[in-house]
Q: What sequence folds into this?
């Protein structure tokens, strides 16, 4: 099963990658830009595998570039907060 098929597994995957990036010394700005690039790639190249991804895909498709950056930043924030709890 792909990590994209289960929302909680996807968030755990992102949290692990985020922790690696932070441990590797990447700045919050670089992480934010990477999150945007990943979101843009997924929106253009990957079919949503679950209802949560479908919502993100739909939001991304109608958002301006600035709003897409906000969505990406919120996903980073979501996985940061989840890893704290």
A:
């Amino acid at each position: 099963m792909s990590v994209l098929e289960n929302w909680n597994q996807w968030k755990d995957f992102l949290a692990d990658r985020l922790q690696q990036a932070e441990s590797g010394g990447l700045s919050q700005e670089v992480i934010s830009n990477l999150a945007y690039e990943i979101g843009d790639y997924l929106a253009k190249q990957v079919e949503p595998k679950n209802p949560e991804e479908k919502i993100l895909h739909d939001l991304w498709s109608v958002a301006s570039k600035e709003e897409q950056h906000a969505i990406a930043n919120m996903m980073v924030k979501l996985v940061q907060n989840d890893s704290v709890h």
